[in-house]
Design a protein that fits this description.
The chain is mainly alpha-helical. It has 4 helices and no strands.
Length: about 55
């Protein structure tokens, strides 16, 4: 399981992940993106907008 910080670092280092995250944000599917990339999230985390929009 990755932390949000770990995934954030991966996203910042990868153009493909940046594009995937941007699309997930646009489609309001950030929770699905996080899960697909190894992050387990709770409702509390989903409500706090843990990653900045790219």
């Amino acid at each position: 399981m990755k932390t949000l910080e770990d995934l954030y670092k991966e996203v910042m280092a990868s153009e493909d992940l940046k594009k995937a995250f941007a699309q997930a944000a646009k489609d309001k599917k950030v929770a699905d993106f996080l899960k697909a990339n190894g992050c387990i999230i709770s409702m509390a985390v989903k409500e706090c907008n843990p990653l900045p929009v790219l």
